[in-house]
Amino acid sequence: MIPVTDPRIEAYMLELTPESDPAILEMEKKARETGVPIVSRPVGRFLSLMTYLKQPNLVVELGSGFGYSAYWFARAMRDRGKIVLTDYSERYMEYARRVFDEAGLSCRAEFRVGDALQIGREYGTIDLLFIDLDKYLYPEAIRVMLPNLAKNAVVIADNALWRGAVVEGGEGKKDAAAIREFNEFMCGHEDFFATIVPVGDGVLLASKISP
Ligand SMILES: C[S@@+](CC[C@H](N)C(=O)[O-])C[C@H]1O[C@@H](n2cnc3c(N)ncnc32)[C@H](O)[C@@H]1O
């Protein structure tokens, strides 16, 4: 394992950006207690920042878990925009709906239970696509969703460095191989300008640059 961010740097970043939103704190506690994977808080802030900058009308999230990353998008949406949450788990979607309701953010969200790749392709002109489902599905996810992206769409994918396994230790492992394939596809594709931001477990960030 190669840590993407030194824990001292991560601690410094957390100290700089204290969080008091009860929904964020509740979901972080739930993740700690249940072991359900969520994006790190610095990645959550990154997602909010991208939302402020991009001001998307439509965000589609592939793999929402119980709604933590989606909450960071929705909270930054001000008075317009919608996020489509997708997950296999009905229980997670019910939980997310409750959290969004209490925060007054349900008007910014659609909660969809089922296969994210089936649901995602129902939406066209996607301004921002966030990929955080099973890692072996990343290459298929971008190929399926490519025709549904808006001009100038932004694509963000979590775990792009997979705790260093894209560089070392991932040999013969299907998740590491899929993430490598995805990163190479995005960085080599003429329709995208992409990079990997070393925050959290690595976040691939791409802008669609051709129609
Ligand atoms: C890493 S978790 C998502 C965490 C979430 N993005 C967050 O940061 O709060 C991945 C989720 O994707 C869901 N998932 C994986 N593959 C899926 C698929 N093909 N369709 C729907 N959900 C999927 C799993 O059920 C799991 O809850």
Keywords:
alpha/beta, 7 strands, seven-stranded mixed beta sheet, binds S-adenosylmethionine
Structure description:
The protein has a single domain, classed as Vaccinia Virus protein VP39 (Rossmann fold, 3-Layer(aba) Sandwich), CATH 3.40.50. The protein has 211 residues and is an alpha/beta fold. The chain is globular, with a radius of gyration of 16 Å. The mean pLDDT is 96. It has helices spanning 7-16, 22-34, 41-54, 68-75, 90-102, 116-120, 138-145, 174-188, and strands at 58-62, 82-87, 109-113, 126-131, 149-158, 192-197, 203-208. The structure holds S-adenosylmethionine.
Global structural class: alpha/beta
CATH superfamily: Vaccinia Virus protein VP39
| Percent range of helical residues | 40-55%
- How much is the average pLDDT? 96
